[in-house]
């Protein structure tokens, strides 16, 4: 398939998604996110040769939410290496992404860094020795460098909105503290977590960000090869919470979703893809984003499980 065909494929997918009646439900437990129209859809693909193709609302900013758990994991792995796994597991979860029950069953060790409790632990770890402002500054620097774009900011209204209504996250933080798996006061770790979830990016910026995970030679080298492999493995097995098996079956590409409706998908050596559609399925993953990635993966045989690759 030629590059112009790829662009046409993205345009076709965009048109197909616009025609879907069921666009999923926009997250409403964070009131600021409930304001976004479910009709928005954008997609952008970066290739190994440096070219980028986009369609739809690919330059509109959206709240990355749990896609930011990739940022915290990358920084925490770089700093702690295997020491990270003393406080968080690396197995798929069986409950919803903000389950208190699963944390209790696992005695305060979250199943993986991509469920909320796991990301609270990685956030708590990268907070060690710094102020919340310094930690968020480090995260933004990391994201901007990886995306080669300084125009990436936190939306304070989204962070404030979740601080007030994110009761399950408060419960998770207190649970972690009760199991002595949080080193900072709950409000300090949660403050950083709510703010990094509120980072806003466009599909074009997010696809650009993912280049180092796809191992492109032109991407900024910010993370070791071993850690890239670990992050991609976790994205494949845990990136869509208790919907990760279904996502692997349908799409077959390591990916991380967020309740803002964004998904970052990494096809090692080939493509870094970002898609955004704010309506979610029942596991809290973008309904049309998943459908679009399934269509793209099938038409280009981009699943890592495709025998023809
Ligand atoms: N799945 C998500 O994107 C969850 C992130 C959101 N900030 C929360 O903690 O609930």
From TrEMBL:
EC number(s) per entry: 3.5.1.2
Main EC class the enzyme belongs to: hydrolase
Pfam families with a match to the protein in the record: Glutaminase (PF04960)
InterPro entries: Beta-lactam/transpept-like (IPR012338), Glutaminase (IPR015868)
Binding, substrate: 66, 116, 162, 169, 193, 241, 259
Keyword Acetylation: yes
UniProt cross-references to HAMAP family, sorted A to Z: Glutaminase (MF_00313)
PANTHER family the UniProt entry points to: GLUTAMINASE
Subunit structure: Homotetramer.
Protein name, UniProt field: Glutaminase
Species, as recorded: Allohahella marinimesophila
